[in-house]
Design a protein that fits this description.
Elements: E1 8-12, H1 16-27, E2 31-35, H2 38-47, E3 49-52, E4 58-61, E5 68-69, E6 80-83, H3 90-100, E7 106-109, H4 116-123, E8 128-133, E9 138-142, E10 145-148, E11 154-157, H5 160-169, E12 176-179, H6 182-202, H7 206-210, H8 213-233, H9 248-252, H10 256-266, H11 276-283, H12 293-302, H13 308-321, H14 330-338
Parallel strand pairs: 1-2, 1-6, 2-5, 3-10, 6-7, 7-8, 11-12
Antiparallel strand pairs: 3-4, 8-11, 9-10
C-alpha cells in the first residue's frame, strides 16, 4: 500500500519510462499518481500495470491500484512532479505545471538531453526544479506491460527532496542515487544516448545493432567527437556504466571477437531492448534528436567548432522523420558518415 504520510508524487508523461519509474516507486510504497494519454489509461484499466527487469524482478498491479489521470488539473494535488515527457514536450509541460502546480512544489526532470532542467528553471521560477537522469532503456512488451531492458540507477541532483525519496525507496527497484555534479552526469548519459539514433537507423534491437562493428564505429566516432568538445568546454562527463567515457570508444570500436567476449558477456543488454527513437520512427512521431546528438552540435557551435559526425547523424534522422531512408545497413551507415569525413578521429583497431 502507498505510504499515506509521504509526499504525493505525480508522474507527468506516463509512457514507458514514466510507467516504469512510477510503478517501481509505487511498489516501494510511495504515493504515486500517473498523468498521461487516454490510450495508456485504457490499457491499464483493462490489463493492470505489470513491470519486470532482467534480474528477475516482476510486479503486477490490478487496475484498481493505479490512479491514472488525463487532465492536467491533477497537478494541483501533487507535492512532487516527476517529468518524463519527451524533450520536445518540455515547453508545453512547463506551461501546464506553471498553471496548475502549487508554488514551491518540486519538479524532477527525468528526461533525455542536457538543457531541459535549464528550460524548466526559466519557465518555473516559483518551483524547485531538480535535474535527474534515467540510465536505462524501458521497452513495452504489451498492453500495460513494461520491461527495463538495460542497467543502472536513477540519479538526481542532491537535494532534500531527492534524499528523502532515496531513503523511502531504499535498495528496491527504482532506487534513486543523489549526485552533486549533474552536468557531468547528464553528459555521461548523453554519451551513451548517442547510440539512440544509430540504433533507430539500424532497424534492429540494441543487442543486434551492437554486434555489428560498423555500427559501433559510427558510435565510437560520435563519442570521440563529443569528448574533444567537452574537453574544450572544461566539462568532465561522469562514468555511468561499467566503462568510463574515456575508455568507452576503445571498447565500442574493438573487433567483434573482443567486443562480444568481453563487453557483451559482462554488460547486460536485454535481447528485446530498442532505443526510444526506434519507437518514434515506428509511430511516425518527431524524435528527440535535437536533444541528443543535436546537443553536441550546439556545444560545438558555442565553441566555434564543428561536429561533423553528430551533425551527419542529426541530418539522417531529420530525413527519416520525413520518410526518407529510415533503415541503413551497418556498412552503408559507416561509409556514409565516416567515409565522407576523412579527418574524423575515432578509436578502434
Amino acid at each position: 500500500m502507498a505510504a499515506s504520510d509521504g509526499p504525493r508524487i505525480l508522474v507527468l508523461g506516463a509512457g514507458s519510462i514514466g510507467c516504469y519509474v512510477g510503478g517501481a516507486w509505487l511498489a516501494a510504497g510511495l504515493d504515486v499518481v500517473f498523468l498521461g494519454r487516454e490510450k495508456i489509461k485504457q490499457e491499464i484499466a483493462g490489463h493492470g500495470l505489470a513491470l519486470s527487469d532482467p534480474d528477475g524482478w516482476a510486479v503486477r498491479f490490478e487496475p484498481d491500484r493505479i490512479q491514472f489521470e488525463t487532465s492536467q488539473s491533477a497537478l494541483r494535488k501533487a507535492d512532487i512532479v516527476v517529468l518524463c515527457v519527451k524533450s520536445t514536450g518540455t515547453e508545453g509541460a512547463a506551461r501546464e505545471i506553471a498553471r496548475h502546480l502549487r508554488k514551491g512544489a518540486a519538479v524532477i526532470s527525468f528526461q533525455n538531453g542536457i538543457s531541459n532542467a535549464d528550460t524548466l528553471r526559466r519557465r518555473l521560477p516559483k518551483h524547485e526544479v531538480i535535474q535527474g537522469m534515467v540510465p536505462y532503456n524501458v521497452v513495452r512488451l504489451g498492453p500495460g506491460r513494461w520491461h527495463r531492458a538495460t542497467w543502472g540507477d536513477l540519479t538526481a541532483q542532491d537535494h532534500e527532496v531527492t534524499r528523502a525519496l532515496a531513503t523511502r525507496i531504499g535498495d528496491r527497484p527504482g532506487r534513486l542515487r543523489a549526485a552533486d555534479d549533474m552536468e557531468g552526469v547528464a553528459w555521461g548519459k548523453l554519451i551513451f544516448n548517442l547510440n539512440n539514433a544509430i540504433n533507430a537507423l539500424s532497424g534492429l534491437t540494441i543487442l543486434e545493432e551492437l554486434k555489428q562493428r560498423d555500427f559501433r564505429r559510427v558510435f565510437a566516432a560520435a563519442i570521440v567527437e563529443t569528448l574533444a568538445l567537452l574537453d574544450k568546454a572544461g566539462i568532465e562527463p561522469a562514468r555511468i556504466g561499467l566503462v568510463g567515457p574515456r575508455r568507452l570508444p576503445h571498447v565500442i570500436g574493438s573487433p567483434d571477437f573482443i567486443f562480444r567476449n568481453m563487453f557483451l558477456k559482462v554488460q547486460k543488454i536485454d535481447p528485446k531492448g530498442r532505443g526510444s527513437m526506434a519507437d518514434d520512427f515506428a509511430a511516425g512521431r518527431p524524435t528527440e534528436i535535437d536533444y541528443l546528438n543535436g546537443e553536441v552540435v550546439r556545444l560545438a557551435r558555442s565553441l566555434g567548432e564543428e561536429a561533423p559526425v553528430n551533425q551527419a547523424i542529426v541530418d539522417l534522422v531529420k530525413q527519416a522523420e520525413l520518410g526518407v531512408q529510415r533503415t541503413w545497413s551497418a556498412k552503408g551507415l559507416c561509409a556514409h558518415i565516416l567515409g565522407r569525413h576523412r579527418g574524423v578521429r575515432w578509436f578502434g583497431y
